[in-house]
Amino acid sequence: GEPLDREGAFYPPTVLTDVPAGCPVDSEETFGPVAAVYEIADEASAVALANDTEFGLGASVWTEDRDRGERVAGRIDAGCVYVNQLVKSDPRVPFGGVNDSGYGRELAGAGIREFVNRKTVWVE
């Protein structure tokens, strides 16, 4: 993609294919409308590629086989994994990452509890 012809720091949605190993988009969080698309030979290779990162905010699995997508999603180390959907936040469900992608959850009930100090006092 290229910068849009308008004021501001906008970047158009971009799809990357044939991404070489070690490319920054493969190992860094882009936080932009950028998708790297890979064609993978088997499930084990797909899970290994998805988990080969120090981050883990969100991931998406695209497949025609819903059961397979759910199975693969369960093996990916990320705070949110979507099957046949883009990674997004929804105020009705917790959102947050694992590893170097966050310090807990935000949104929904779990998110509220992240900002509360709970205390148990037990007296006999």
Automatic annotation (TrEMBL):
Q: Which SUPFAM superfamilies match?
A: ALDH-like
- In this protein, which residues make up the domain named Aldehyde dehydrogenase? 4-121
Highest taxon of the source?
Archaea
Q: What is this protein called?
A: Aldehyde dehydrogenase family protein
Tell me what organism the protein belongs to: Halorubrum pallidum
